[in-house]
Design brief:
By secondary structure, the protein is an all-alpha fold. Helix content is 78%, strand content 0%. It has 16 helices and no strands. The N and C termini lie far apart (50 Å).
Length: 330
């Protein structure tokens, strides 16, 4: 019991604003560097792939702007226009708008990937704007799929990672802020996924189809499996946020399950009958979910590393030194 209590206390150091102390401070600095660079790459890949998906296959923003219940009071009441005329003549303008959103997110992604030092000031302006654009796109999806809360909550992680990077760049030594915010984001992602899988909303047909394609299950078996996975997602989300002694175990599950659910899409939907085997779409669907496993991994790096082998410490320090040299040349 004593050991368990000490372990819980060590894990909760993250939320007291500490990663490591004393002689581990050098390793701590190297890990901070690695943490920032990995987070930049995750944000860059997320924005690039989300922007590409919008540019290539459109956005639910179109559905929002053509939603009569939401938009007719603005078009007819505020602007004094006719709804039918608006619908008939707005298609081209909405197409240009959605393409602009896609290109804008892709440019923001490139900036996040390569702005190590000289372009940091610009990146600090672009990151909140990118989150706002993604929030609008996500809200459009929420309205377009009949206000399903699970979808809105699940996408909080993708919308929030640019803000997580922004916080890390503005307050690089506020580990407590980064830790809490990252845990909140992964909690939302897994709890939102759990709402669908646990049948709080109707289980999407593609969830069932993917499960049946990967596992030897019929439809009833797939539904039962998804129900179990949904409840497990809820439990793990709560563990990571509120139960320090089990936090590492929960993060390992998130890394594994986040990667598996992302890989499931190209595994199931890519086909030789499609152009480029379908990788142009399903590869992007894989990459846009990078944060689902990478952010739990980054939280894991923030936790105290007592008892870690010297060999691993040395490798991390070398990796951190190499990363710092790359950043200084950029």
């Amino acid at each position: 019991m004593k050991n368990r209590s000490k372990r819980g206390e060590a894990n909760s150091l993250l939320f007291q604003g500490k990663i490591c102390q004393g002689e581990e401070s050098s390793l701590n600095d190297q890990l901070r560097t690695i943490w920032t660079v990995v987070l930049q790459l995750v944000v860059g890949v997320t924005l690039l792939s989300r922007g590409y998906l919008i540019l290539r296959w459109g956005s639910h923003v179109r559905g929002l702007l053509w939603n009569e219940e939401s938009m007719s009071p603005i078009v007819e009441g505020l602007l004094g226009g006719d709804w039918q005329q608006y619908v008939a003549h707005s298609d081209q303008a909405i197409t240009v708008l959605t393409q602009g959103i896609g290109v804008g997110l892709m440019l923001a992604g490139l900036l996040a990937c390569f702005a190590f030092s000289r372009l940091r000031a610009l990146l600090l302006i672009v990151l909140p704007l990118a989150s706002v654009i993604m929030l609008i796109d996500t809200w459009s999806s929420y309205v377009d799929v009949h206000h399903q809360l699970g979808m809105l909550v699940e996408h909080a992680l993708q919308v929030g990672v640019p803000l997580l990077l922004w916080l890390n760049l503005v307050w690089p030594f506020k580990d407590r802020v980064a830790g809490w915010f990252a845990c909140f984001l992964v909690f939302c992602c897994f709890a939102g996924h759990g709402l669908y899988a646990a049948d709080f909303h109707p289980v999407p047909a593609h969830f069932i189809n993917m499960t049946m394609a990967i596992l030897p299950l019929d439809e009833d078996g797939a539904r039962s499996f998804l129900m179990l996975a949904g409840w497990l997602d809820f439990v793990v989300a709560c563990v990571v946020l509120w139960i320090p002694p089990l936090r590492k175990l929960g993060l390992y599950y998130m890394i594994f399950w986040g990667a598996v659910t992302a890989l499931a899409r190209p595994y199931v939907f890519c086909s030789a009958s499609l152009d480029w085997y379908g990788l142009d779409r399903w590869g992007a669907e894989l990459l846009v979910r990078s944060s689902h496993w990478a952010v739990p991994f980054l939280i894991l790096l923030l936790l105290p590393r007592k008892g870690m082998q010297d060999r691993l410490n040395l490798k991390l320090m070398k990796l951190g030194s190499v990363t710092q040299r790359i950043m200084s040349r950029s």
